[in-house]
Amino acid sequence: MLLIQNGLLYTMETDKPIHADLLIENGKISKIAEKIEPSKEAQTINAKDMLVFPGFIDPHSHIGISSEKNSVEGDNTNEGTNPITPCMRAIDAINPMDSAFHNAIAVGITSVMVGPGSSNPIGGQFAFIKTHGRRIDDMIVLAPAAIKIAFGENPMTNYGINGNMPSTRMGIASLIREELYKAKQYFDKEAKNSDKDSFQKDYTLECYRELFERKIPLKAHVHRTDDIFTAIRIAKEFDLGLTLDHCTEGHLIADEIAESGFPAIVGPSLASRNKQEVAQSDFKTSGVLNKAGVTVALTTDHPVSRLQYLPLCAALAAKEGLGEDEALRAITINAAKIARVDHRVGSLKVGKDADIVIYDGNPLEIASSAVTTIIDGNIVWERKKPQP
Q1: What is the Cα–Cα distance from 206 to 251, expressed in whole angstroms?
Q2: 0.90 exceeded by the pTM?
Q3: Residue 34: how many other CB atoms lie within 10 Å
């Protein structure tokens, strides 16, 4: 039992922060009230003059798959031997010992979406996990959480340079359509089979089941406007959910994206413009999309930008038009909604996981620091007090 007292709570459930106490029991938020009397069993944290937030979330990263300090031997990001690899599972490659997890916890990032890279038109299955743990099985919130698809330069470069398909954007779209069509036929055949026990399961297509049941979305790596429109077109053809990840040129077609109804995960805007399709990268993108009515979250795309810079990315997006309130939502409740885990994380609400970060100031200000990070009701990081 843990009691946080006297803090200013940014619940993400209300428009304004509230002065209140927050009680944690059995890893969940059990009570939020103006004043909660501590019991003898409760450990207390005095958050006077501090700000209390739901743990921050990065909804697109490769943490643990592309391990820091391990160079080539720690890079499991892309299976570059086959353009279609939907059965690959992120959970089989994430290394919880990656030092980046500690860096993330130290700024209050309590959960992340992790998955394969963008070399393959269909790359595999993302997972939504907590950032604290030693065994990936104990860190999972949702797996699979999405099916990765990728458009543009990365698949073309990875395969076309060797004379293989895809070498064009048409080739990428064709391979994705062909695979989704096979999966649709497979599930249609199953639905028409009156004897379910006799239906022959296909492992290479079963991985799409949650996708076609609309429990999880396609997670599309898209930078250019034409790639964004192709991803939307394919998702609508097959009546599937979709998130537009990176969405670098999204500010150029904000109204059309809003009309599609699909959310955007914007970034890594802190990274360099190191290829043609990210030439329009700018921190203004998220603000333009938000004003058009698109649900927006932010990503560092770790390790493209390091995960611990997520609050800095939010601050720069706020400065360039997103605004502070929406920037905080973009790394909390919006990220949780887009990842379809907002029933557990993303806001301070009774019944949700007790994933919380306490700051000594506004996290969008560079001089502010996390003081305490809590995951599943356990204090997993505390800032060391300076020696007298």
Answers
A1: 36
A2: yes
A3: 8
